[in-house]
Amino acid sequence: MEARVFYCGLAGALAASADASFRVWHDVLHVHLWEAVAFFTVVEVLLLGSSLAMRSNLKRTGRPGIYGSVV
């Protein structure tokens, strides 16, 4: 049950992040749509990868390691 709540929260946070990112990049900085999509995709994939690596380190060593700083 906790995992489902977490994943719903993750989806909501991702949607809010996408909305904010596109507004800033497209409306404020006047970046083309495809560039804004690329920026958002790269940042979110790296953030998700870092959080998964942090989780793995926590399980293995009990410490988040460098990934905790990134996240």
Description:
The model has no long low-confidence stretch (mean pLDDT about 85). Helix 1 runs antiparallel to helix 2. The radius of gyration is 15 Å and the shape is elongated. The chain contains three helices and no strands. The chain is mainly alpha-helical and about 70 residues long.
SSE blueprint and pairings:
Elements lengths: L1 H27 L4 H29 L4 H5 L1
Helix pairs in contact: 1-2
Major beta sheet summary: none
Order of helices and strands: HHH
Distance between the termini: 24 Å
- What do the pLDDT scores average to? 83
Total number of strands: 0
Radius of gyration: 15 Å
Q: How would you classify the helix and strand content by structural class?
A: mainly alpha
Strand content: under 5%
Helix content: over 70%
Number of helices: 3
